[in-house]
TrEMBL record, chains A, B:
It comes from Halopelagius fulvigenes. PROSITE patterns: AMP_BINDING (PS00455). Transmembrane segments: none annotated. InterPro entries: AMP-bd_C, AMP-bd_C_sf, AMP-binding_CS, AMP-dep_synth/lig_dom, ANL_N_sf. This is Long-chain fatty acid--CoA ligase. PANTHER family: ACYL-ACTIVATING ENZYME, BUTANOATE--COA LIGASE AAE1-RELATED. Residues 534-553 are annotated as: Disordered.
Length: 553, 553
């Protein structure tokens, strides 16, 4: 068989440290902002690999991390996979029983844990499920009082180790990373990333069809490094030879603004709430974010208002992207096509508010209820299926989930989408959240976006609740802003929705709540609302006959 | 084993035709400029695959092309590999015995041949070596009178075929392409490209660290499509969703200028002589090439004067690149690093005149005579070794060449290079052309560049000839421009070199010739000059003792 050298991550590190030895890795820690160069980074990665070797970590072993975004966490990103072990980033926001399931399922041998997360991890500790863990490394310079044992601090762990490491030639099929999806239902599902998958994803994120990262960029991932490898940015930034900025534990809007200003950040990334917070901060404070060129928003839909404000007030492009743990994670990116830059603002925002164009190298299908592909007309919707070199074809040790979520090598994403004539994908709902009323589909997401556009609404979510006649009906849960006139708001919201959507989309009720319950990854937890909602209120509700879909009348 | 879908070329075509259905493929043919869209291109590719199916082509079969740069040749680029066959592009400029060797070695089953090349192919025809060829397809609308048989014209061949083709799911290890290196010595060596290698190369060319191709680009490959897949541009352009412009058979500088102006070409690529010709044309004629943003120059070193003229007179960046058939072919690209844009012109040109920075995803070593890696100081030189996912690890059926040209998975490129402190590679010579005089190395390429900078020199080459005392001594062969004063030129050139280089680098003789003999790929054929050079002239030559390297005195 003809062929070439395997696709592995290490050459990205080699190139960055050799061609960009003086580019910096900057990290906000509890002790202030630390910085070093790629050249020093490479040495530290070598030290880490030697230390893990000495600790008995072998090829194929899983090494877990329970950490925020900082340079030491980044050192594990290249150190662990390049020695042939598998980097398993654990989400510390998960409930204890999920952490237990994950650590036991992955059989981690070493766990790296942030000082501020030691207590959380110790709280989840269970002798039996943590049996595989031979060592805890507290990622800092000191070890807080803890029951975890044996435990070392990171700096002592690597201090004596040599910077030169004899890196092995790895197979591209070697598992290099692992993340668990944190669904709202059932046990988390493990996704393994081979060296090849991470290589492919890294290469795919570099060009325009990905995230368009250049060596001149200064990249600050605000998205946590335990969320699908911070969307791959630590790898991509290295492959581009760009500068890294890690914002550390729980960065405030002020921290972010100050890092942007002081480090000259050009590209940052995170979920929408982070950027809403930054906008609020900028309203009240002087901060120079003029270096910032674009913000990648994912994890949840980017509100049009955020896209508009960053463009009009700060000349920053919001780059909306969509992905999944199952695809390492980038799938679609809402960059503009040639010619669209001259469109008027609102037309541009409309495109940017969609999840965007499929990245080059992937394929997709949008499958309707009848199993056929739907038309690309921006209206017909169906479930998005994707496949490609960085899309997994299975979950780790979960044959029953594999049966359900894959069709051959296609991943059935569980996202219900439309695709417009230009190929822009828009998520209208999660398949499980879409509201099926009288034989038609209602998009909970579109209703939510509409409600959240109201000035007096802080957050809103719409869920389908059982209904005797229409199977399901939408009910809106709204968190009003402080001082809002709730009575007026209720009728205004209903009017707003009525003006914008078919009449059967209008929620039967608008209920006020103090907070939308969220999952560990910050997504709306609709399951809780559905459970809490009293069935009787439906029957007693105001669902008018004329709110039913025409096709059912 | 965890994993994902195989890396194949087809998703690039799928994405271009779905997301950029109206972007054009433009082609200059004997009958004028033809154009169609990606959407139509996809249909034509489907028709071609069905026609090849009907002609009996099966998975793994080799399909040869003997064609210039045009849309029909481009159709074979996706059609042949995506049906599971192997696209073998043959260089029609090779001597007949090489063509015979190549066709026999590759065992092509179908040969696509340009109308203007039918006679050349028929001239190389030999019943025994062409035994595998079951069909000839003349790539046009008519078949000229020929002895080749059975023969069809391309349009009849595909006319009846269906546009829908049931593309197979291929393994990424499936051979997809094949090119032969055309060295000046020995038999051509075959390099097979798997689907994975072409996928990797395509992805690597898209970002800044490659050729930086965007969907807004209009790409015109002047480099022939039989030269390592036109440096991969037909694949890369498709993956980016950019517009293609193919300049057809033997484009004149006028043709190129007119295509740039009329099609809005932003990126073009070819060997230096093409661009010298275009500059000469532009000096004498009105043509608007303002759409042009950059020219990729490879195949031979880009003269500094060309880089300067395009920048100063046309605001066009010359992007110098280096590659090899063995690496599909891109290896290094001389883009500027962050901050260098503000350097003064001459400093920038100095970087751009080098072969550049290794592409992201590859690794390299520069190995000195002692087998150790040389220092990156811009002075020490050694042989460049490379490896990576698009660098082959073997030649097809050539175990003796494999023994010589590879060390493990490293390709020993045969190029002697320096690397400067910033990591820019500069080729100082081919290993076989470097002149070894008195135990020191003399770079024939540096001497040639110096000689060619003289206004009265059209072309120049320097070869090492045997010498009794110093093993080898340099001799220059110079093609003077019309009207040059040869006597004056001879002494001026000697003075010029003496001022710039160590004294033992000064050629023992400067000989005037009418033309530098060239290989089929347009490179200087130094072997011919060495053979033609009369040994006695060395002994009778003027090699002074003081021209010897200091280390030998």
């Amino acid at each position: 068989m003809p062929g070439a050298t395997d696709q592995t991550l290490r050459p990205f590190l080699w190139r960055a440290s050799k061609l960009f030895p003086d580019r910096e890795v900057v990290s906000r820690t509890h002790d202030g902002v630390e910085r070093y160069t790629y050249s020093e980074y490479e040495d530290r990665v070598g030290q880490l690999a030697n230390a893990l070797d000495a600790a008995g970590v072998e090829r194929g072993d899983r090494v877990g991390t329970f950490c925020w975004n900082h340079h030491r966490h980044f050192e594990t990103y290249f150190g662990v996979p390049s020695m042939g072990a598998q980097l398993h980033t654990i989400n510390p926001l998960l409930p204890d029983h999920h952490i237990q399931y994950i650590v036991e399922n992955a059989a981690d041998t070493v766990l790296f844990v942030d000082p501020s997360l030691v207590e959380k991890l110790a709280g989840a500790y269970d002798e039996e499920v943590f049996a595989s863990v031979e060592r805890y490394v507290v990622v800092g310079e000191e070890v807080p009082e803890t029951s975890l044992s044996p435990v070392t601090d990171y700096e002592s762990f690597v201090a004596e180790a040599d910077a030169a490491y004899d890196w092995p030639d790895l197979s591209e099929e070697q598992p290099a990373g692992m993340c668990y999806t944190s669904g709202t239902t059932g046990k988390p599902k493990g996704v393994e990333y081979t060296q090849q998958m991470l290589w492919s994803h890294t290469m795919a994120t570099l060009p325009e069809s990905g995230l368009d990262i250049r060596s001149s960029d200064v990249v600050m991932p605000v998205v946590p490094m335990f969320h699908v490898n911070a969307w791959g940015l630590p790898f991509s930034t290295t492959a581009a030879g760009a500068k890294h900025v890690y914002p550390g534990p729980s960065p405030s809007p002020e921290d972010l603004a100050s890092l942007i200003e002081e480090e000259g950040v050009t590209l940052t990334a995170g979920v929408p709430t982070v950027w809403l917070g930054l906008l609020d901060y900028l309203d009240e404070n002087d901060a120079d974010i003029s270096s910032l060129d674009r913000i990648v928003i994912g994890g949840a839909a980017a509100p049009r208002s955020v896209i508009r404000r960053f463009d009009e007030e700060y000349d920053v492009d919001v780059v909306h992207a969509w992905g999944m743990t199952e695809m390492a994670p980038i799938g679609t990116v809402a960059h503009l096509k040639p010619g669209m830059e001259s469109w008027d603002r609102e037309e541009r925002y409309e495109k940017r508010a969609k999840q965007g164009l499929l990245a080059s190298g992937l394929e997709m299908r949008v499958v309707g209820d009848d199993g056929e592909e739907v038309e690309w007309n921006g209206e017909d919707f169906g479930e998005l299926w994707v496949r490609g070199p960085w899309v997994t074809t299975e979950y780790y040790e979960r044959p029953e989930a594999n049966e359900e979520d894959f069709e051959g090598n296609w991943l059935k994403t569980g996202d219900v989408v439309t695709v417009d004539e230009e190929g822009y994908v828009q998520i209208v709902d999660r398949a499980k959240d879409v509201i099926k009323s009288g034989g038609e589909w209602i998009s909970s997401v579109e209703l939510e976006n509409s409600l959240m556009a109201h000035d007096d609404v802080a957050e809103a979510t719409v869920v389908g609740v059982p209904h005797e006649r229409w199977q399901e009906r939408p009910v809106a849960f709204v968190v009003p802003k402080d001082g809002a006139d709730r009575e007026a708001l209720q009728s205004e919201l209903t009017e707003m929705v009525r003006a914008e959507f078919p009449k059967w989309w209008v929620p039967d009720e608008v209920m006020f709540i103090e907070e939308v319950p969220k999952t560990a990854t910050g997504k709306f937890d609709k399951k809780v609302l559905r459970e809490e909602y009293d069935d009787e209120s439906i029957v007693a509700g105001k669902s008018p006959d004329d709110a039913a879909p025409a096709s059912n009348d």
